């Protein structure tokens, strides 16, 4: 795919291939989309000064995150319904991530189960993102499955106490559960690559996609509402729930969605192994600060006590290094891998990760640095 040279090229390709409703669900923010704009401006404002005449013939992008050696300071962020972007999308992302030696974080709301991802990508470094269900016992059983599949790290998304106001979803008729409509049907039929390559393949094999991790007795197609209160997402999480998870989960525990110093300190007090300084990609709270604005103070205060990750708004390899320069040890990317999947399936994801790796490498070379840790 030589014509896809940067993230915006992949985004444009995804826009052409995906139904408008699905593309905008992935691509856009919330309310007036000020947060997305602010995240981009905060990253664009950062400048990194190069050191000259350092004589590094090559760079080593390997780093360590939560005790795992990774091929570069990148983690594939959890994204709901990645399997709707490309057939078996979660498996494809896991394989692409494994080739680069980076972790892939599976979402509670993925189409494919963690067991299926493990079977399809046996060498993948698997993490798991948890949305707690109302029935805590069902969540605990899910974590037992996750542990049995070899996931090393649990990422608890803590920044979604209510559903955000995404007006474009209403205009596009997009919702979970998906609803049939004339407008939606036209949208799908005018994107035949997605209809034949994704939706029809599911319908002809496994049927309408479902949330794969939901217990079988509560599982339903994404076109049907949940039939039980038990598997509705718990919107009233408290710090006591983190204490409970710390007892249930024996691997690494990461809290995602931290934007305040107070919450970062609290996470350390509860012995979280890491935090993700994240604005949810600008998709939740439109008046939230950009991660780049709060990351330095958080890193200075608790960086010696817990691992600090960051996400939101990455479009270039240089954005990854900017977050590292502010105190993060590694960076999550969510939209970009989905754009790669949409553009050309697993090959598209491979190419996108390689593009980011090349951009990180070139930027390090220009900065006169041999490793990302030197930033």
From TrEMBL:
Residue span(s) of domain FMN hydroxy acid dehydrogenase: 1-375
Annotated positions binding FMN: 78-80, 107, 129, 157, 256, 278, 334-335
UniProt key word Acetylation: no
Molecular functions per Gene Ontology: FMN binding; oxidoreductase activity, acting on CH-OH group of donors
This protein's UniProt keywords: Flavoprotein, FMN, Oxidoreductase
Top-rank taxon: Bacteria
Matches recorded under InterPro entries: Aldolase_TIM, Alpha-hydoxy_acid_DH_FMN, FMN-dep_DH, FMN_HAD
Keyword Flavoprotein: yes
SUPFAM superfamilies according to UniProt: FMN-linked oxidoreductases (SSF51395)
Active-site residues, record numbering mapped to chain: 280
Cofactor(s), by name: FMN
Annotated positions binding glyoxylate: 25, 131, 166, 280, 283
PANTHER family: 2-HYDROXYACID OXIDASE 1 (PTHR10578:SF107), S -2-HYDROXY-ACID OXIDASE-RELATED (PTHR10578)
Family to which the UniProt record says this protein belongs: Belongs to the FMN-dependent alpha-hydroxy acid dehydrogenase family.
Protein name per the record: Lactate dehydrogenase
Organism: Pararhizobium polonicum
């Amino acid at each position: 795919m030589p014509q896809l040279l940067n993230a915006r090229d992949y985004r444009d390709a995804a826009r052409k291939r995906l139904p408008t409703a699905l593309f905008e669900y992935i691509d856009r923010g919330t309310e007036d989309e000020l947060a997305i704009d602010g995240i981009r401006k905060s990253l664009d404002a950062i400048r990194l000064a190069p050191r000259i005449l350092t004589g590094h013939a090559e760079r080593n992008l390997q780093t360590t995150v939560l005790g795992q050696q990774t091929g570069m300071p990148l983690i594939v962020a959890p994204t709901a319904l990645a399997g709707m972007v490309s057939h078996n999308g979660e498996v494809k992302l896991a394989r692409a991530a494994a080739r680069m030696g980076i972790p892939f974080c599976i979402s509670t709301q993925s189409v494919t189960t963690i067991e299926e991802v493990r079977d399809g990508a046996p060498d993948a470094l698997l993490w798991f993102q948890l949305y707690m269900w109302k029935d805590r016992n069902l969540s605990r059983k899910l974590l037992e499955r996750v542990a049995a599949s070899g996931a090393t790290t649990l990422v608890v998304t803590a920044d979604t106490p209510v559903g955000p106001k995404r007006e474009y979803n209403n205009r596009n008729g997009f919702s979970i559960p998906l609803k049939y409509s004339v407008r939606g049907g036209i949208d799908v039929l005018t994107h035949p690559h997605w209809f034949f390559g994704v939706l029809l393949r599911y319908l002809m094999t496994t049927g309408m996609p479902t949330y794969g991790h939901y217990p079988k007795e509560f599982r339903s197609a994404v076109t049907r509402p949940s039939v039980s209160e038990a598997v509705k997402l718990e919107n009233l999480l408290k710090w006591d729930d983190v204490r409970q998870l710390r007892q249930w989960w024996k691997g690494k525990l990461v809290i995602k969605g931290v934007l305040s110093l107070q919450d970062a300190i609290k996470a350390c007090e509860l012995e979280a192994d890491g935090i993700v300084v994240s604005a949810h990609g600008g998709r939740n709270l439109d008046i939230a600060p950009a991660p780049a604005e709060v990351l330095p103070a958080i890193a200075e205060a608790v960086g010696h006590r817990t691992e600090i990750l960051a996400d939101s708004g990455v479009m270039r390899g240089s954005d990854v290094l900017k977050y590292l320069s502010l105190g993060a040890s590694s960076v999550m990317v969510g939209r970009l891998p989905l754009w790669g999947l949409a553009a050309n399936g697993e090959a598209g994801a491979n190419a996108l990760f390689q593009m980011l790796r090349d951009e990180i490498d070139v930027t390090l070379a220009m900065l006169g640095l041999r490793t990302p840790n030197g930033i």
